[in-house]
Amino acid sequence: MHTMWKGSISFGLVNIPIKLHAATEDKDISLRTLHKECHSPIKYEKVCPVCEKEVGKDDIVRAFEYTKGKFVVIEDEELEQLKKKTEDRAVEIVDFVKIEDIDPIYFNRSYYMSPNEGGTKAYSLLRKALEESQKVGIAKIMIRSKEQMAVIRTVQNLLLMETIHYPDEVRAAEDVPNIPAADQVSEKELTTAIMLIDQLTASFEPEKYQDEYRSALIELIESKKAGENLVAAKPKAKAADNVTDLMAALQASIDRTKPEKKPVKKRAPRKKAETKKKEA
């Protein structure tokens, strides 16, 4: 499994060298966009709408738009300095809490944690301590230039880290429009609804749930491949050689400046009568 981050967890005076591995993966099927006429992949270019020209990587700066059309430019060097001030390779556990106290809306991404060299015993200690106390650790970590909060908990026989949103990243529930102020249901309706819930109640078995759309899309793709319903991009037209272009231009110029040839007039055949007179 690919290691995406190396560092350490610290709680109190205990320091555990660890590695992070993505615990989930995106299974979405990516579809390319092609030109309908020749089936070539569409190329997206970065173009300045004012200068009307394509811009390269060296011509781009990052900025914060504080009001419409007004920006504060942030240099890469300034971002690097901020990153160095806040980036510490230690995941510091600041609190231990019960996981039931954390609303699921806060959870973001999951990462498996494995011990790095020399961290096996301390890793086992933290895992066992979390299991016995039935608590999770609240920590801070810097990943991809962003400081994130995280929950460290046990799953099966390993430690799992889940990044969580900061409170100001979670939108207020009271801002959601058109929510009824009071329950407008009868006792009979409520009893029937609870009965239905009881009938559909089961143990959570994630294996029985599937992405039906993705499965149908894969089946469609495979059937098209089997039926040879395939398309291919047309090869790019070869750029004309400059020498060839020059020769063609010169030849065209010569042809244009050539004097027009006057059509040769054919002599009219002499009449037989005139010929006979001369013979006489």
Keywords:
single chain; 280 residues; alpha+beta; Ku70, Chain: A, Domain 2; seven-stranded mixed barrel; two-stranded antiparallel sheet; extended
State the share of residues found in helices, binned by percent. Answer: 25-40%
> What ranges have pLDDT less than 50 throughout 5 or more consecutive residues?
none
- CATH class annotation of the domain at 5-25 and 88-169: Mainly Beta
Going by CATH, the architecture of the domain at 5-25 and 88-169 would be Beta Barrel
Mean model confidence by pLDDT: 82
Largest sheet, if any?
A: 7 strands, mixed, barrel
Strand order in the sheet with the most strands: 1-2-8-11-10-9-7
Question: H/E element string?
Answer: EEEEEEHEEHEEEHHHH
Beta-strand content estimate = 25-35%
Question: Number of DSSP helices?
Answer: 6
Structural class assignment: alpha+beta
At the fold tier of CATH, the topology name of the domain at 5-25 and 88-169 is Ku70, Chain: A, Domain 2
Structure, described:
The protein is an alpha+beta fold and 280 residues long. The chain has a domain at 5-25 and 88-169: Ku70, Chain: A, Domain 2. It is built from 6 helices and 11 strands. The protein has helices at 76-86, 120-133, 187-200, 212-226, 242-257, 272-279; strands at residues 5-11, 14-22, 47-48, 53-54, 62-67, 70-74, 90-97, 107-115, 136-143, 146-155, 158-164. A hairpin with a 2-residue loop joins strand 1 (5-11) and strand 2 (14-22). The mean pLDDT is 82.
Question: Mind sketching the topology for me?
Answer:
Blueprint (H helix, E strand, L loop, with lengths): L4 E7 L2 E9 L24 E2 L4 E2 L7 E6 L2 E5 L1 H11 L3 E8 L9 E9 L4 H14 L2 E8 L2 E10 L2 E7 L22 H14 L11 H15 L15 H16 L14 H8 L1
Parallel strand pairs: 1-7
Antiparallel strand pairs: 1-2, 2-8, 3-4, 5-6, 7-9, 8-11, 9-10, 10-11
